[in-house]
Fold this sequence. Notes:
membrane; transmembrane; zinc; 2 helices; LITAF domain-containing protein
Amino acid sequence: MEKSYPGMEMQPTNVTVVVPPQVFGKEPTQVTCGNCKNVVVTTTIYQNGGCVYMSAILMCCFFIPFTFIPFITYQCKDVTHYCPT
């Protein structure tokens, strides 16, 4: 039997659950949307990022005729995932 002392009460405990962010690849992925709460397959959009510009600068320094290649290939581009709804 627990003995309670005056002025000492059990304090409620707060449990915090930390969910790590989901890492997406370059392909559309099935996820539960955080806004609409539906299970959807993401829509992907490729955008020029730092890798594209750095590759273009390197190509410009060494292979000037091939400077445009990073801008037309998908390998160097950043991918943004969107909910289709």
